Amino acid sequence: MAVSATLHCLTGCAIGEITGLLIGTAAGWPNVPTIAISVALAFCFGYLLSTLPLLKAGLAVGAALRLVLAADTASIATMELVDNLVMVIIPGAMEAGLVNIVFWVGMMIAFAAAFVAAFPVNRFLLRRGKGHALIHGHHEASAGEGARRFIPSFRTGALVAVLVAFMLGGLIVSIADEFGGSGDHAAQPTNAGVHS
């Protein structure tokens, strides 16, 4: 269960962090405000992904948020500290644009390091009945009743698959941009179908 809890937490953190980096880069912000919005959004998305199943299971918003804050804060904080440190340490990663191989490889390394750092935190908490142990039973609960059945719940595996696909997509676009030349080749006429 520690692996699942860590992957679930990593997914929320990654969604928030990448969103923050996209915003900061698009706005041309320097590193400090970009990191600040990335960390804030990582906590928001991390908490959101844990809160939705609790709401669907019938918990009130306040009760769900109290459980999630107690369950996820240590894991999210560990991940954010580690992955931001890794991004700062990797030469050029923080200055790299979104269409840059260094950015996407750096993010992959940072998220892997964050997973490795947060896994023992989650395992420690689970063994003591804390962390995701507080909310796990609610995540496996009912499909929701009334309007709550429309609250989305995402399986950890599906979230991880989407995250990996997004990261690989960013890397592939960056590789294509790096090695594809000026990018105007698509506008050039071709001789396909022309007979001499």
UniProtKB/TrEMBL annotation:
InterPro entries: DUF4396. Keywords: Membrane, Transmembrane, Transmembrane helix. The chain crosses the membrane at residues 7-29, 35-55, 67-89, 101-121, 158-176. Pfam families: DUF4396. Residues 1-131 form the DUF4396 domain. This is DUF4396 domain-containing protein.
